[in-house]
Design a protein that fits this description.
Alpha-Beta Plaits, five-stranded antiparallel sheet
Length: 166
């Protein structure tokens, strides 16, 4: 009997890189002329999976998002894993927007990935949900590589990582 090979499909962002990107964004916002004398804050507690942008108006909020997005890209944090909430009115006519960092594959998306793999009719590839990841196994490495190519070709709304290839 041949030994099964496998790999895991996961998602997430390195929270240390997120913290570094936010610190860089804070410094840039503090030094930019268009943010002088107005409300422009980023609230983030290290290790959490969300941060809040607090700005004077829609224009400043969007400008802050652009700065944060540039810093995240420079630090290899996938922007697909940052989910922006709707801006909420705060005190003094300011706006707050919560941004959530996706750290695991949601069960609904994981089920869609498993269903996609089954619908492709691979000879022996098996996929199963394991917590916030999807494990794919098969006796054939070539088949696993084909599964990776096919899953990468689809848009799942999040950045997928393929690891633990055994």
């Amino acid at each position: 009997m041949a030994k099964d090979e496998s790999f895991d499909i996961t998602t997430g962002a390195d929270l240390m890189e997120v913290a570094n990107a936010i610190n860089q964004a804070r410094k840039e916002i503090a030094n930019r002329f268009d943010f002088k004398g107005v409300v422009a804050e980023i609230d983030y507690d290290h290790g959490t999976t969300r941060f809040v942008l607090h700005a004077q108006d829609d224009y400043k909020l969007e400008a802050m998002w652009q700065v944060v997005a540039q810093r995240m890209v420079a630090r290899n944090v996938p922007l697909k894993n940052l989910v922006r909430g709707t801006p909420q009115k705060a005190s003094g006519g300011t706006l707050r927007q919560e941004v959530t960092i996706v750290q695991g594959i949601e069960p609904e998306i994981a089920r869609k990935i498993v269903k996609f793999i089954r619908d492709q009719k691979y000879k022996k590839a098996q996929a199963q949900v394991q917590g916030d990841a999807v494990r794919v196994s098969s006796p054939s490495r070539d088949e696993l590589q084909q599964v990776i190519r096919d899953v990468k070709a689809q848009d799942w709304g999040i950045e997928l990582k393929f690891g633990n290839y055994r």
